[in-house]
């Protein structure tokens, strides 16, 4: 876990952007047969839903480290929901001071928090 | 080859409570060093060397950073620090050499604010003015 406090509400355009960015990582798992064995999209959705929090974190870490590469604005949208010790959202003034692995860790935390609410737009169970 | 600081080749920002913030765009930095060596002599005017004495030791050094682009979150943080009289470290660092100056344990002198809102480049941004007794400068010889 990173030292940053993660928001639990993901509102507005930035929230939607962050959600889609997080979803990009899950989609990238679909293209990693060593992680996700399902070749049917809806079965892959079900597979991810069955994972508990720890398992999700584990596979998401693989997706973030080795899967999809996000655009700058998508990374900014995700990091916006992490707050530093001064309760300031990570933004343009602070992001460049972070190390690459630190950014990955924060992204992982934000994604895990987002997926506590909902994973897929097509998800029926929530 | 040693050279003087240039705004286009450096970063300016501040640290507070263990977090570093780098302003994404600054216009100018104005550094005023208040400690001076002065000369005096008796009114007879016979002493051609004079007597040196120091002045301004109880006056802090000041740094004014004209910030052009800043997120609202950072602007609000600076306001909060100003309101509660907190201390920051304000700094300017040359990206290529690592040289620069740091104002440690600095107080924010003026309330960070836009002094005018209107058309024109001067109305964008605000000035962050800090005062400190603990200023360190790092400049390499070569």
The two chains with the largest interface, and their residue counts, are:
A-B, 11 and 15 residues
List SSEs of chain B in N-to-C order: EEEEEEHEEEE
The rounded distance between the terminal residues' Cα atoms of chain B is 5 Å
What is the tally of beta strands of chain B?
10
Can you list the strand order of the major beta sheet of chain A? 1-2
Beta fraction of the residues of chain A? under 5%
Summarize the amount of helix of chain A as a percent range: 40-55%
Count of individual domains of chain B: 1
Low-pLDDT runs of chain A: none
Structural class by helix and strand composition of chain B:
mainly beta
- What's the pLDDT, averaged over the residues of chain A? 86
User: Number of DSSP strands of chain A?
Assistant: 2
Q: Uncertain segments of chain B of ≥5 residues (pLDDT<50)?
A: none
Q: What's the CATH architecture name of chain B?
A: Roll
The count of helical stretches of chain B stands at 1
What is the fold-level CATH name, i.e. the topology of chain B?
Pnp Oxidase, Chain A
Tally of separate helices of chain A: 5
SS-based class of chain A: mainly alpha
């Amino acid at each position: 876990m990173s030292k940053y406090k993660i928001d639990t509400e993901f509102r507005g355009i930035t929230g939607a952007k962050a959600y889609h960015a997080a979803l990009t990582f899950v989609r990238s798992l679909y293209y990693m047969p060593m992680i996700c064995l399902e070749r049917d999209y809806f079965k892959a959705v079900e597979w991810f839903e069955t994972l508990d929090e720890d398992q999700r974190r584990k596979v998401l870490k693989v997706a973030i480290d080795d899967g999809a590469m996000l655009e700058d604005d998508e990374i900014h949208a995700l990091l916006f929901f992490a707050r530093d010790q001064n309760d300031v959202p990570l933004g343009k003034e602070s992001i460049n001071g972070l190390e690459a692995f630190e950014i990955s860790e924060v992204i992982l935390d934000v994604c895990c928090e987002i997926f506590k609410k909902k994973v897929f737009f097509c998800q029926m169970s929530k | 080859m040693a050279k003087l600081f240039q705004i286009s080749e450096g970063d300016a920002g501040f640290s507070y409570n263990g977090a570093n913030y780098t302003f994404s765009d600054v216009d100018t930095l104005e550094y005023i060093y208040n400690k001076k060596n002065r000369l005096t002599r008796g009114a007879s005017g016979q002493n051609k060397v004079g007597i040196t004495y120091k002045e301004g030791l109880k006056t802090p050094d000041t740094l004014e950073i004209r910030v052009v682009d800043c997120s609202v979150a950072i602007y609000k943080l600076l306001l909060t620090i100003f309101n509660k009289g907190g201390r920051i470290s304000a700094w300017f660092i040359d990206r290529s050499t690592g040289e620069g100056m740091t104002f440690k344990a600095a107080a924010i002198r003026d309330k960070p604010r836009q002094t005018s809102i209107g058309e024109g480049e001067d109305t964008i941004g605000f000035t962050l003015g800090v005062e400190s007794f603990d200023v360190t400068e790092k400049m390499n010889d070569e």
